[in-house]
Design a protein that fits this description.
The chain has helices at 15-30, 54-70, 81-85, 87-91, 108-112, 162-166, 174-186, 209-216, 237-245, 262-268, 274-287, 306-318, 346-370; strands at 6-11, 34-36, 44-49, 75-80, 98-100, 122-124, 144-148, 150-151, 170-171, 191-195, 203-204, 207-208, 224-227, 252-254, 292-299, 323-328, 375-380, 388-392, 398-402, 411-419, 425-429. By secondary structure, the protein is α/β, with parallel strands linked by helices. The longest helix is centred in the last third of the chain and has 25 residues, at 346-370.
Length: 430
């Protein structure tokens, strides 16, 4: 029915979204669709959205307009977190034909019927309490695969919409996850990133995240695993020891901080204070040599005075962090924080964000300098940018070298020999 029809995809947001988009694309490919790039003419555009910030919503609207301009007669489907939270708002955007809630994002082949434009956008929604778990993993999009293990979140952080968009915590079985890991390996992919909304809360048939990574460590053919963002209060000594002793789990953690002020952490309803966070970072750094640790930070949260922001700056400088992901606080409907006093104006948020981004560059530079002349293994990606190719060391240092097709998607032993003006490292093959 859809033979020679073209489908294009655009993903906004997190690694979890990428795993789900890739799964949807395989479904449509099995129905006869030719998968094409988003900037090309297509018969069907699927946009998988994020709603963590207002910018994410704006980007969604921009991408919809882009699809409509590229192919005015194409069917445009919008799904993801923004679609779950505000379906009616999306239907009012010109060009949208279908808005799919969380339960229907994997049901696109059955909802298509034909590829004719709709007179009025259809909403296929669902109650958040009734969300099912759907397995997902990415293929062929990158050198690495994003493997979904868990969805939803039972935490109630005061700024976050994810529980409203993705529902309660629910996890895949270890058997399914291991089976998906084996499928990924068969496609020649060497690195798997374990992803979800709150992966440390993994719980299926009384099996924990620790049980899961022990089983994944046994899967033959996987060269590398990376653990995506994991909450500091959920990182156990056993998890740290597994990463330390495993040949497959890379010495790389991403541990959200959000604020270095205990006052602000309390307002955010985070489940730790700075003391615990410091203890976790110090413990990891002590046990794992040359470990890379990244952190998320939110600036401009209500009540964040100059004094509290400076506490964050001072605290981060105490930590053995390698980089930061910086977010300006964004008011989200139906969250507790939207009603908090002490609003921080957007200019101040922007300034604080800039300060932290500068600090992040300094942290990364310091980390790279520490690893100069060290010997590592780099997994090179299949991407040619101006005659250069790129890859990452075990501890997430980005390396560039002259493009060579023969080493694409292979691991090579290198000695890191220089930090370039663009902040990336060059290496000598050994």
């Amino acid at each position: 029915m859809y033979h020679n029809k073209r489908a294009a995809f655009y993903t906004l947001g997190c690694k979890l979204n990428f795993s789900e988009t890739s799964t949807i694309s395989r479904q449509l490919k099995n129905k006869g669709f030719i998968i094409t790039d988003f900037d090309r003419v297509a018969d069907l555009y699927v946009i998988n959205t994020c709603s963590v910030t207002e910018n994410a919503n704006k980007n969604c609207r921009r991408i919809i307009r882009k699809a409509k301009e590229k192919s005015p007669n194409a069917l445009i489907i919008v799904t993801g977190c923004y679609a779950q939270l505000k379906p009616k708002e999306i239907t009012e955007i010109e060009g949208v034909d279908m808005v799919l809630g969380a339960n229907d994002k994997f049901n696109i082949p059955n909802l298509l019927n034909n590829l004719n434009k709709k007179n009025k956008a259809e909403i296929h929604g669902c109650e958040i309490e009734n969300l099912e778990y759907k397995s997902a993993y990415s293929l062929n999009d990158r050198t690495r695969s994003f493997l979904k293990i868990q969805d939803g979140c039972n935490y109630t952080c005061s700024y976050c919409t994810i529980p409203f968009a993705r529902g309660k915590n629910r996890s895949d079985s270890i058997e399914n996850i291991v089976a998906n890991a084996k499928k990924i390996v068969k496609q020649g992919i060497k690195e798997i990133v374990i992803t979800g909304v709150n992966i440390g809360t993994y719980d299926n048939q009384n099996k924990t995240f620790t049980d899961l990574i022990k089983e994944l460590d046994k899967v033959k053919g996987v060269e590398r695993y990376r653990i995506s963002s994991i909450e500091p209060n959920l990182i156990t000594d056993e998890i740290i020891d597994i990463v330390k002793n495993s040949k497959k789990f890379m010495p790389h953690f991403h541990i959200p901080l959000q604020s270095g002020s205990d006052l602000i952490l309390g307002k955010m309803r985070r489940r730790y204070k700075t003391k615990l966070y410091l203890e976790k970072i110090n413990n990891i750094s002590k046990k794992i040599e040359n470990v890379c640790i990244g952190a998320d930070v939110i600036v401009g949260f209500p009540g964040e005075t100059d004094k509290e922001f400076n506490k964050t700056l001072d605290f981060i400088r105490k930590l053995n962090l390698s980089y930061l992901h910086v977010f300006s606080y964004s008011e989200r409907e139906n969250t507790q924080a939207i009603n908090f006093k002490g609003k921080v104006n957007k200019q101040v948020r922007s300034l604080r964000s800039k300060q932290l981004r500068i600090l992040s560059k300094k942290l990364q530079r310091k980390f790279y300098e520490k690893n100069l002349n060290g010997n590592f293994k780099v997994l090179f990606e299949n991407h040619n940018k101006d005659g250069m190719m790129f890859g990452f060391t075990e501890n997430y240092i980005k390396v560039k070298t002259k493009y060579n097709l023969e080493i694409c998607q292979t691991s090579k032993n290198v000695s890191l020999n220089n930090i370039e003006n663009d902040g990336l490292m060059t290496a000598k093959f050994i």
